[in-house]
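FIELD: query
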Amino acid sequence: MPDPLPEKNSSQSMWRQIGRYSNLGFVLPAAVVVGLVIGHLLDRWLNTSWITLAGLLVGCVAGFVALIRGVVRAGKDT
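FIELD: result
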């Protein structure tokens, strides 16, 4: 009679991989949106017009850094 535990572990492993890789798809857009919103709010507060662009760029850089870190971490786990 086969042991049901390996099937359960493989199912958990599959769901962990799905969660890890789906997270990578949300990191970049979320960072860009957060940077854009913070830049826009700072522009309105300080009555400027260039901080939105700076926030967008900082969000892009932060998103790419987080994406690369996640890909490297996922590569090491497999």
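FIELD: remark
The chain has a mean pLDDT of 85.
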